[in-house]
Structures are given as structure tokens and as C-alpha cells.
Design brief:
A hairpin with a 4-residue loop joins strand 15 and strand 16. About 15% of the residues have low confidence. Helix 1 packs antiparallel against helix 3 and helix 7 crosses helix 8. Helix content is about 40%, strand content about 15%. The protein has a five-stranded antiparallel β-sheet, with no helix packed on it. With about 500 residues, the protein is of the alpha+beta class.
Length: about 500
């Protein structure tokens, strides 16, 4: 019976994420993650990027340490209290469910019902448990009947209701809350180390702090759901992108195979060029999706940890634990609730747009073009939106955006129009772009356009010689474009700067 309870408590509350064992001297970081003190020491020494800065092993948030290092971090009294109960219960067993449990009152093996004192951390037989609750010095102790020790939540709830003694005065109960120091104290502390301070009732102060935390939990829970929805939308977008990548390549192959008899070698070369364009588009958008998904996972972990930890402390923590941790938890939950996570949009898929026109001479551009179009994701049901505060008239709108870096913005998708006829009689190598565009004078090049030297060319044989072809990699409207030539060289060339045009479309 007791073994099952110990395993449940150990798995749910008391396992360090670094060593995967029960907490030893648990320390809480500002992000509300808890680890063993020694584990944090080793992590800090091994991964120190700058003196005095500890990166959280779970969420990578930087925590600035004081002069004492890890020792200066606040202890997790909530977890430490559960560890004490766990240790006391584990020590009273001698090897499994069939082992006997010794009563700490009479030193006899307990036969029948077993009780456990939450204050003394000791097992008691039925008779000693009865005396324990009537003796003057122990009658205020919380004694848990053995029948109630099957429920982990019941055990933790009863612990939170047990009297709390002062750490400075062993036999004195916590009765007051020092408003100046924001710390729970006993009566002796109020006339000694806290003399002259303002005090309030500890139970009332704890209830106020507990209610404030519980009020913040509901919107925090919705934020966690929204982060999850954002991650799910990014996964869906990547799935659509992945499927459309293969569909686009398949469509390219099918259209190309129809024309192989007339211009097999040229068409196959251009088909591979189009596939390279598909891969380039896919990598470009996949990187954007991965960056968004990593950002959402990062902030969801912070929000979920703040929610889980604060919920447990608010529900199961005793007076001292709630009062000690409430300022830090309130600050973290308020930061979580101030954010507005949004789903990934727009989801885009790679589309192959085949061209079909009667012609007596096949050209590479007759195959078609590759581009990105918006995809509709209908299999996700968005979570319920949280009501945002209304903006008052005349007040400038402010929105907190949880982004670690600016997302990559894909080039705009122009309306699909008829491709201009190539002026050269050389085989048309075509291009890969977001969508076909209209060529006009002067030509406005786009990323992945296939180009060759034009009327104002004065750069020697950087392109590999007359007739050599390259691909536009950057076209930002500045009058210059960057091209990577098929010979491996790359450079920047004028496309409008000083009314000079070094390039032309192939």
C-alpha cells in the first residue's frame, strides 16, 4: 500500500530533470523550474557562457546569480517538504510490501491500521496515533489514517493543512506575515528580528496570495493551449509543404515526360532545374516554419512550467510555501498572460503550374513554372480565443510579440500572367519563381529567375563567357541583384541602378 503511494509522489513531484532521481536540496530558478543544488552546480560549471549567468537546463532562460552562485538561489520548500515525507515513509519500510512497519511511538511492529504524522514524519500504530492527537505538545499535529494514504492528492492536501513551525524557533507556529519583509514569521520573530514591522494574519495573507494565483491560472492555461495550437498549425503547415513538394516534383515529371520525344535532353535538364527551385522554396519555407515552431515550443514550455508549478503550490502548498513563492509566481504568470500567441499563417504549398500551348518547336519554358500558394488547413479546430482588452480611443495599440527573431518574409506572389517570348533563339532554359510574371521594359527580376549578360554588361567573363546562365539569389528592389552563375561564381549586378541593366532574362 505505502509503496504505491511513494512511487506516485516520487514520479509526479520529486524527480530532478537532470539526474532523474529524487531532489536533493532543491533550488528554484526564476523560470520556476526546480533542480537539485548539486546538479545546477555541475550544469553551471560545464556550460558556463559568462560568469554569473546560469542557463536553465529545461527552457534555456538566463538566470543571473548572486555572489554566492547557486547557493544564492531560493530553496523550493514545497518540494523539500514532500521529500521529507517521502524519506520518512521510505525509511520506515524494510524492503517491499511484505515488510513490517515499525511504530515510532512504541517501537513495535504495526499490525493492522497504520497512521502517519505529517509533522513528525513518523509512522504510528492505532494506539499511539490516538495518544499522539491528545498529547499537549502534539495534539495540533496532522495525523493521516492509513486508509487515506492511498490517494497522493489527499496526502498532499492534508500536508498543506498541517501547522507550520518557524525555522528560527522550532516549537513556535507560523502565525503572522511580515508585510515589510514579505515573509511568514512566528510571534517571537515579530518582537525580535522583525520588531517594529507591519504584520497581518498569516492564514489570511496566504489565502489572499493563493486566490491571486488561482485567478491567474485560468488565462495561463488558455495560453498553454494556444501555444499548443500554434505548434500544431506549424506541424500541419510542414506536412502540407512536404506533401506538396513531392506532388510538385511528380507533376513536373509527368509534364516533362510528354515532351521528351521532341526535346528530351533539354527538357530533362530544365526539369531538374525546376526541382532545384522546388527544393529551394521548400528549404526557405521549412526554415521559417521550424523557426516559428521552435519559438512556440520555447514559450509554451515557459508558460506550461509556470502554470504547472504555480497550480501545485497554490493548491497543495502550505502557508509559508505559498507566501514565499507567491511574488515570483505572480510575476511569472503575469508575463505569461500578457502574451498573445498566434497560429502559424499563412500556410503555403509548392505549386507546379504547367503551361500548354501549340508550338512547332519545344522550349524549356513550355513545361511550366513552380511557385508558392496559400494552403487551407481545415483539419485544425482553433482553441477558444481569449478576450483581449479593448483599446481606448486615442491610445496607441501595443502588442507583445513572442518572437526570438524576425520571421523570413517570402516574396509577394504576383497575379499569374502570360510569359513573354524569349528574344534569344537559344533554347529557353526557363526559371523557377514564386509564380510566372510579366516581362516588361525595364525587366524586374525576381528570386530564382534565370538570367544571362545583357546590353550594359561590362564585367568581363565573371559569368563564364557569352551565353552562360545564372540564377538570381537576391532581388530587393535596390537596383542591384545578386546572381550565382552556373560556373560557381557569384556577384552583384545593376538592374536599374544609374539606368544600367547588366542582365536579361533567358
Amino acid at each position: 500500500m505505502a509503496v504505491n503511494v511513494l512511487e506516485k509522489i516520487d514520479d509526479e513531484f520529486l524527480s530532478c530533470m537532470i539526474c532523474l532521481e529524487r531532489f536533493k536540496q532543491p533550488k528554484t530558478l526564476s523560470c520556476l523550474h526546480t533542480f537539485c543544488s548539486n546538479c545546477l552546480h555541475q550544469h553551471y560549471n560545464k556550460n558556463r557562457s559568462q560568469p554569473g549567468v546560469l542557463s536553465c537546463p529545461a527552457c534555456r532562460v538566463d538566470v543571473y546569480l548572486k555572489q554566492d552562485g547557486v547557493h544564492s538561489l531560493p530553496g523550493n520548500f514545497f518540494v523539500e517538504g514532500l521529500c521529507e515525507i517521502f524519506q520518512a515513509m521510505a525509511t520506515s519500510q524494510c524492503g517491499g510490501e511484505s515488510a513490517k512497519v515499525m511504530c515510532s511511538g512504541c517501537d513495535n511492529d504495526i499490525i493492522g491500521n497504520t497512521s502517519f504524522c505529517m509533522n513528525c514524519k513518523e509512522f504510528l500504530c492505532r494506539i499511539c496515533a490516538s495518544h499522539h492527537t491528545r498529547t499537549k505538545h502534539t495534539r495540533d499535529h496532522q495525523v493521516v489514517p492509513g486508509s487515506e494514504m492511498e490517494s497522493v492528492e489527499k496526502l498532499v492536501e492534508m500536508r498543506s493543512q498541517s501547522p507550520v513551525t518557524c525555522t528560527a524557533h522550532e516549537n513556535e507556529s507560523i502565525k503572522l506575515y511580515c508585510d515589510n519583509c514579505q515573509a511568514p514569521v512566528c510571534v517571537i520573530c515579530s518582537v525580535t528580528s522583525h520588531k517594529g514591522h507591519q504584520f497581518s494574519d498569516a492564514t489570511g495573507a496566504a489565502e489572499t496570495a493563493r486566490n491571486a494565483i488561482l485567478k491567474l491560472l485560468s488565462p495561463a492555461e488558455q495560453k498553454v493551449s494556444k501555444y499548443q495550437y500554434g505548434i500544431d498549425s506549424a506541424i500541419d503547415a510542414e506536412d502540407v509543404l512536404e506533401k506538396s513538394k513531392h506532388q510538385a516534383k511528380t507533376a513536373i515529371d509527368e509534364k516533362t515526360n510528354e515532351m521528351i520525344a521532341g526535346m528530351a535532353t533539354v527538357l530533362r535538364k530544365h526539369a531538374e532545374s525546376l526541382k532545384d527551385g522546388v527544393d529551394a522554396l521548400f528549404i526557405h519555407k521549412q526554415a521559417d516554419i521550424h523557426k516559428f515552431k521552435e519559438m512556440m515550443e520555447f514559450h509554451m514550455e515557459i508558460a506550461r512550467n509556470a502554470y504547472d508549478y504555480s497550480r501545485k503550490v497554490a493548491r497543495y502548498g502550505n502557508v509559508a510555501e505559498v507566501l514565499t513563492a507567491s511574488p515570483q509566481m505572480k510575476t511569472k504568470l503575469e508575463k505569461v498572460n500578457a502574451a498573445y500567441p498566434e497560429p502559424y499563417k499563412p500556410a503555403e504549398k509548392i505549386e507546379f503550374a504547367p503551361k500548354s500551348r501549340p508550338s512547332t518547336r519545344f522550349q524549356q519554358s513550355d513545361v511550366g513554372n513552380v511557385g508558392l500558394v496559400t494552403a487551407n488547413l481545415t483539419n485544425r479546430v482553433p482553441v477558444q480565443n481569449v478576450q483581449r482588452p479593448q483599446r481606448q480611443s486615442g491610445v496607441k495599440k501595443k502588442t507583445t510579440k513572442l518572437q526570438t527573431s524576425s520571421p523570413t518574409v517570402a516574396p509577394p506572389i504576383p497575379q499569374r500572367t502570360k510569359m513573354a517570348q524569349p528574344q534569344s533563339k537559344q533554347p529557353n532554359t526557363g526559371h523557377v519563381a514564386y509564380h510566372p510574371y510579366t516581362v516588361s521594359a525595364p525587366v524586374q527580376l525576381q528570386v530564382y529567375s534565370r538570367v544571362q549578360r545583357g546590353q550594359d554588361w561590362e564585367w568581363g567573363n565573371q559569368d563564364g563567357g557569352v551565353g552562360s546562365v545564372g540564377m538570381v539569389m537576391i532581388a530587393d528592389g535596390s537596383g542591384w541583384v545578386q546572381v550565382k552563375w552556373d560556373n560557381g561564381l557569384d556577384g552583384k549586378y545593376r538592374m536599374g541602378y544609374n539606368n544600367k541593366y547588366d542582365l536579361q532574362l533567358v
